[in-house]
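TASK: fixed-backbone design
INPUT:
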């Protein structure tokens, strides 16, 4: 079945490349934007050469390895990186081989390639989850049947289609075969783990304990190496404090750093893009803003714009703007609704939340430098006050209108219950990741109108 999955993905990438080439050629020759200077004839040699280079780049970036990441974006990021490298390759070949490729045609192609590629990958992902999900799942043992382990299993089952087939728990403290309030049972103790791995053909062990014993971790790690299976840890305060460092280059030497890596070029580029997108967004959304404001004013009591104190970069408070979605008598500093059936939501508010149109006023926060287009979701002060130390790292970057949590399957739960998404973004932030998150957000908004 892994071969079928790889075949589907490769087919999607081939179709994406062909579609992008045809779309860009049509857009250029039809002069849709009025920027074309002449007609360009299709050249098979350039088309095939570019296809071979593109597929090699994707293969070299690990795009066809059968592995899952919890955000689900690693393969999509490889498409953006692949298109970028292909663009640089084309530019180099144009100068070296004196190729004649119109600049606007190349720009059309390089912009459409990742967009079409991501859409095709999402379609393939939907096909896999609908028809082959049981075949592509990883079989998992969870070490630790305490509160953290049970919470993880319950969350996985509620989210659904996580790619994990959780076989059961392993725990030295609880009697085997005991029910734990969910369908999974304790199958044995640590001493039985090797036999369980063989019996159930396990692909991954997940350690879900707040205070793991170092000796136990060494035994599990040695077992995972011996059996050639993956080993993962649920994020905890203790795990972060035990390993708060990242290996990065410093003066040509590998050095351990506990501070966040500075990315000045990324920060500057992101700020310029934020301002451009916020200005464009406000101009394009102006008719929608006026219409929503009129509807809220007529149908609901209270102000149209809901102003709320949130915690931003470096823990500094700021005022965040949203269209009002809850009754004006509701406590503004209670937990946010996680269900459309919440009685505090107004009928108009339910629709605004479903389409994410309630977030439009936050474009003003982007212009005021309080927020970015992509980043961790800003939390209320009373929630930040309850943060464990490792969770405060999400305050090291500017909060965003959208982010990894919003496009994940965990978005129906509280943000602070899923800090791993924001922590992953903080450590791996890049223009390519921001691009994919924005595109996925746009797809979610479109789907909200059709579902």
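OUTPUT:
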């Amino acid at each position: 079945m892994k071969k079928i999955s790889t075949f589907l993905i490769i087919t999607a990438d081939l179709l994406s490349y062909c579609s992008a080439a045809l779309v860009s050629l049509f857009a250029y020759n039809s002069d849709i934007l009025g920027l074309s200077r002449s007609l360009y004839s299709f050249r098979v040699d350039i088309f095939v050469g570019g296809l071979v280079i593109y597929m090699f780049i994707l293969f070299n970036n690990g795009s066809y390895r059968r592995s899952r990441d919890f955000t689900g974006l690693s393969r999509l990021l490889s498409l953006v990186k692949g298109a970028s490298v292909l663009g640089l390759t084309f530019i180099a070949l144009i100068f070296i081989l004196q190729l004649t490729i119109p600049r606007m045609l190349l720009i059309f192609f390089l912009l459409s390639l990742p967009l079409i590629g991501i859409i095709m990958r999402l379609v393939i992902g939907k096909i896999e989850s609908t028809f082959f999900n049981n075949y592509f799942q990883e079989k998992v043992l969870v070490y630790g049947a305490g509160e953290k382990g049970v919470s993880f299993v319950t969350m996985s089952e509620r989210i659904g289609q996580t790619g994990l087939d959780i076989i059961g728990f392993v725990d030295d403290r609880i009697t085997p075969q005991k029910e734990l309030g969910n369908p999974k049972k304790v199958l044995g103790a640590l001493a039985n783990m090797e036999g369980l791995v063989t019996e159930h053909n396990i692909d991954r062990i997940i350690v879900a304990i707040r205070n793991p014993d170092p000796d136990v971790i060494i035994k599990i790690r040695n077992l995972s190496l011996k059996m050639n299976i993956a080993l993962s840890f649920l994020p905890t305060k203790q795990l972060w404090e035990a390993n708060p460092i990242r290996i990065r280059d410093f003066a040509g030497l590998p050095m351990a750093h506990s501070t966040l890596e500075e990315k000045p070029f990324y920060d500057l580029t992101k700020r310029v893009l934020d301002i451009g997108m916020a200005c464009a967004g406000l101009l394009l959304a102006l008719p929608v803003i006026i219409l929503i404001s009129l509807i809220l004013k007529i149908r609901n009591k209270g102000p149209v714009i809901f102003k709320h104190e949130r915690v931003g970069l470096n823990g500094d408070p700021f005022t965040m703007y949203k269209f009002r979605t809850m009754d004006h008598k509701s406590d503004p500093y209670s937990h946010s609704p996680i269900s459309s059936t919440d009685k505090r939501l107004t009928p108009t508010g339910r629709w605004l939340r479903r389409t994410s149109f309630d977030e439009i006023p936050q474009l003003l926060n982007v212009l005021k430098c309080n927020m970015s287009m992509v980043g961790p979701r800003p939390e209320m002060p009373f929630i930040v006050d309850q943060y464990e130390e490792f969770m405060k790292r999400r305050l090291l970057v500017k909060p965003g209108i959208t982010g990894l949590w919003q496009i994940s399957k965990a978005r129906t739960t509280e943000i602070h219950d899923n800090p791993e998404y924001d922590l992953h973004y903080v450590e791996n932030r890049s223009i390519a990741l921001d691009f994919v998150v924005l595109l996925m957000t746009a797809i979610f908004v479109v789907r909200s109108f059709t579902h």
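COMMENT: The chain has three domains: 2-133, 137-234, 264-450.
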